[in-house]
Amino acid sequence: MCEVKTKAENHSLSCRSAMTSSTRLYTSNRFRLVTPGPVSWTASSCLTDKMASLSVSSRLNKAVRQQYMSLPQGQKCQVTYIWIDGTGEGLRNKTRTLDMEPRSIDDIPEWNFDGSSTSQAEGSNSDMYLVPVHMFRDPFTLDPNKLVLCEVLKYNRLPAETNHRNSCKDVMEKIKEHSLWFGMEQEYTLLGIDGCPFSWPTNGFPAPQGPYYCGVGADHAYGRDVVECHYKACLYAGVKIYGTNAEVMPSQWEFQVGPCEGIEMGDHLWVARFLLHRVCEDFGIVATLDPKPIKGNWNGAGCHTNISTKQMREEGGLQHIEKAIERLSKKHKEHIRMYDPRGGEDNVRRLTGLHETSSIDDFSAGVANRGASIRIPREVGKDGRGYFEDRRPAANCDPYAVTKAIAQTCLLDPEEVSLKN
Description:
Helix 3 runs parallel beside helix 11 (399-411). This protein has helices spanning 43-52, 62-69, 165-174, 224-237, 264-283, 310-313, 318-329, 332-338, 345-350, 378-383, 399-411, and strands at 3-5, 12-14, 23-27, 30-34, 77-84, 91-98, 111-114, 127-137, 146-153, 181-191, 241-246, 252-261, 286-288, 303-308, 365-367, 374-376, 388-390. The chain starts with a strand and ends in a 10-residue tail after the last helix. Among the domains are: 3-59, no CATH class; 72-163, Ubiquitin-like (UB roll), CATH 3.10.20.70. Strands 10, 11, 12, 13, 14, 15, 16 and 17 form an 8-stranded mixed beta sheet that branches. The chain is globular. It contains 11 helices and 17 strands. Residues 164-421 form the GS catalytic domain.
């Protein structure tokens, strides 16, 4: 919860609640707040508040940092291990030195960490294994240094509870003949470290939604520097980033990853998320994947998932798309449980039937319909082949859980499918 206090009165206004005691005036898409009481909101106090919403670390002298970052490191290589923690949403990382640059994932050794500090183990038996699975270039410390995504195994070498990659990989192996492609659209919202949306007015709300989607200009696009730096970091790292755009709510953005085949969808999206958080760290702000960060008449954040098999991409593919949608319609509730890390509880706040979403209680499908559970793009309906979009996954979903569920439902024998976390 974000609290904003006035100078004259020691009361607070919540960024997430309706401001019933105030009148909102909009001029040229800019906002100013008028209240019955003596609220003081001057340009200088606003600037001070905005600076306070940035982290202290981001204000350290970067020129001094660069002096050290440019030092030679000989033949040594820094490898940063990345893994998903016990929340199923958070990412952790730590770095070690290798004697030389690894040429493949096989050259990177397993490592371990304290699972009792990441909600993944008890203190009396806390060592967890980090098993490298996918290597990327490091855009922060540059070549020859690497980032490596890891699976987490418990002391008995069984997958940790939030390691959905292990079972996802098994399913993808079973259906690899279908050449299953995914593309995921990751929406996120930029916040100050005070928890309020980045660049929103200190004591109120910006102008209503409308001019922000794919917008340009300082009064429409909040935080573009973060977006463009993240894009470049993904390209450098080797993440299959497809594009990016400003979203409907101010300070909300989206990037797309794909097309990726099978298990690599989850690998690339998780590393893209890691890069986003690291870029935001440098700028002193926060990226949240909360599916509904601001209550009221503001869009939520999803992770729309595009799906295509080899048959769907060929002549007459539309019939295979329709068959997959029919299968999904029979597993709606099961998929909702897999589409956020809390078994559907997060999506309850987002999938209301409003703000370009379907109702969480009902399954629907349609051509070019962004209010449906499943959207068939207009050009796909016209061409009779291509892909379809599942609009139900929440922004904070685990892509391994989502892609596994879709692959099971659409491509495996229904009798052998059991959707569970």
